[in-house]
């Protein structure tokens, strides 16, 4: 079965919706934790269920290299391989080619680049990306795209955007997993007309949903928000919209306000491994000496396992000693933080109080120490 | 309250017993997972409860350095600090001085050595070790001892053994935590008469239990088993006996056969971090290529969380990619393996089938691939 999106209500451009998948129905807008290598770093599926994580993202490029899509296929697909019973979205590898490969040769056919693991020459094409994702058997697959660097010349961005549309078409033609939905990805760099062009042309190909790509590549916030605005008005209201790689607490609010339904980001787990925690008053770094004798939880009102059971002093101790449990406890808190924020955002759309919620959240968050 | 040991029954020298502590009563013989830095690496207390781990060990030397016993004291003791509601045993630091310090200066007063973290000069005395443990508020503390290297000259071993007895006496005199029991440690190196002397003199000081130390320092198995035999016959039957740092599956059987009640070892978690798993047929290394497409659990009949939910192929993938979840899943399996072995050992003592159980276990274990 393909996914089914139902728009429940709008508050201005913000959308409250439902997404039905083969692994359960969840409410949108939603934040998706990242499970790059078929696991959300340090965590089990049960821990994700416990924090009400409804859907995760996994990375096609990484799974292609290790363990290889054929192993995952033989295991019965990604859900069975990692023993995860919720919906899984896979990206296309386009972003990893951009972010991990130091040198790459982009042709009409695909991208030649070197493995970030052993330097082996790799060739990824729109067809191969889809074929890998078909085998991974994720619930939602992404079209292969080029993530345009920022800044990029208009000429470069235009040629790349046009090619990404041709790639999307080629990928769609070989896609053949009836239980997997396929999203098109909007590119266009920072250019308004290219974003409009990309949105319109991609929508013509009739995908199950639409992603906004090419953000979080070094651009400033205003540019990022513009990239969303330029494209989103051309997307159909009956399909989910996914803003790729964005997970800062305030960016989630800005995205939702503009009509985004889905977000993913490695930020909560990456910050955790470096000893950082989200709080409503901003990020804190648990390595800070001032937490040495702080026997209170990261946040008093947080309902996560970590805050219900451990103090800042204990987590600081674990992080200081490089004990993995520290990163694990912070990952639980940070992911739950973003999921809880999204729960509250959905509630505020429902109650027509999104603007107040956003204002209040930002005011408090910027009071960070 | 101090611990209370009750001997339920003997099967030859093997003992089935009960140990009552402030944090619950457990059956002996027992295996204790090691939580060096106030956590069993990668695991939460709940995971330890789930695998029926009844008691853990934590390291005084490590906690003295980080976070420092005063922080733990201010947190309300080690149980509160790490949010663990089972009994905790702390060692004395003697073994770490032996194993971690490259240069040390042992005097009658104590040991001068350098921190393994920053090279800072440290001075640990029998009194200080006990005072630190008093503050950590573990349920069972250890006397400060010198762990004699193997091999050691008779003269060295004799002088050291005599000094360890004087240290035990000094430590006992300053011990002042009414909720904490204190064990004496038998040393004597590989020498029968010194082990006998150490046991008799330590017992004269009337501790709440007795540890056999100075094993697992490079000696062969026969020597290790002799070290137990030489001492254990002089220990009172109404006090628990603890063999320090021993956790190989077959060594547990050999120890129990000789009358040991308690064991600890970092082996299950250390092996896990290197991709190794215990099985009834011997250790296996999950990094081995032959597990790449092995979609069966580590052990079919294992009741641990890992074996009930994950395949060797998946764990191999995690370990190969340095994903921490791999070490976590293997830690769960390996600790549960030893705890389950001890459950079966206790059952066999109860049923007078220990000899058959041991023979069967060893026969199968040595068939390892």
Tell me about this structure.
- The structure is a homodimer of 369-residue chains.
- With 369 residues, the first copy, chain A, is of the alpha/beta class.
- In chain A, a hairpin with a 2-residue loop joins strand 2 and strand 3.
- In chain A, the strands form five sheets. In chain A, strands 4-14-13-12-11-10 form a six-stranded parallel beta sheet. In chain A, strands 1-2-3 form a three-stranded antiparallel beta sheet.
- Chain A has 15 helices and 16 strands.
- The model of chain A has no long low-confidence stretch (mean pLDDT 97).
- The N and C termini of chain A lie far apart (48 Å).
- In chain A, helix 13 crosses helix 14.
- The interface between A and B is medium-sized, with 34 and 34 residues.
Describe the secondary-structure layout.
The structure is a homodimer of 369-residue chains.
Chain A: E1 4-11, E2 14-21, E3 24-28, E4 30-33, H1 45-50, E5 56-58, H2 60-65, H3 69-75, H4 78-82, E6 88-90, H5 94-100, E7 104-106, E8 111-114, E9 121-124, H6 126-136, E10 140-142, H7 154-174, E11 181-186, H8 192-204, E12 209-212, H9 221-232, E13 241-243, H10 249-257, E14 262-265, H11 267-273, E15 276-277, E16 284-285, H12 305-309, H13 312-320, H14 324-350, H15 354-365
Parallel strand pairs in A: 4-14, 5-6, 10-11, 11-12, 12-13, 13-14
Antiparallel strand pairs in A: 1-2, 2-3, 7-8, 8-9, 15-16
